[in-house]
Amino acid sequence: MLPSTWKGVWDAGYNKVLYPYANNDLTARTHDGYLKAAREALRKSNGGKEVAVDGIKGLSSLLQIFNYPTQIIYDFMHLVCLGHIPSLINRWCTRIDKNTILKIDNKLQQLRIPHNMKVVFLESIKMAWQWKAKNSRLFVLHVGLLHAPQTKEEILLAERLLDFYCRTASNVHNSSIEIFSLHAHLHLAYQVRQHGGLAHMSAFAFQSAIRYIKKKARGCIRLASQIAYWVDMRRVTQSNKFSLPKECLMNVSRNKTDLKKYIVTIKLIHNRLFCP
């Protein structure tokens, strides 16, 4: 769902929906607007075929959890690394000769990369659409000057550069580049201001941890329930480290004061063991 009221236009020539920059009215959508469109779609459907209003087909329980669109973020991995960059590189390759492509391939293969990154460019740049996300990320962020914007002024500069890029992309290539994945770049700077750096909210972290999650499920039935069950089991059986207070080593006599101290100590140990 778009975070703005900008509507796409079907282009029969390219057989895709385009979002021409010239049509952008810069009007942001609101949570109330989403709810209104969802209720209108529900009313028009009237129990029959689903009808979409402004791209929304009806009410969702997620509308009660998230604030649309400010809390619905774009994933840097899929939007940029797996979406726009391979498409853009393919366009570049149609404009350069074979010798230039060969030089680029050789430079990529000769890169000396830290061992913990584990990124190897096996395919030619002409096959960028077959690259994994980590290859595209390395190509975008690390092949060349590396700089991480931190100040508001730098984020504003990046926003202006992205705006210029989206505004002029169709002049460099053609209007077929103005698809949703290009338009979405206009919202990245606002997203960084709201939620922090793109690296902290991308799917890369999940992709790295998914192999551990997959070990908790077998087959293809009720995967979420299986994962939740084994996570609960681990939390129940995992022991917490604790240190015994010195008082637990004392000799207990029939003295009432000593018995009270003993009872308090036993309760303390019980709480640390079974009530984390």
UniProtKB/TrEMBL annotation:
The superkingdom listed in its UniProt entry is: Eukaryota
- Name of the featured protein: Uncharacterized protein
Q: Which organism is it from?
A: Didymodactylos carnosus
Write the lineage as a comma-separated list: Eukaryota, Metazoa, Spiralia, Gnathifera, Rotifera
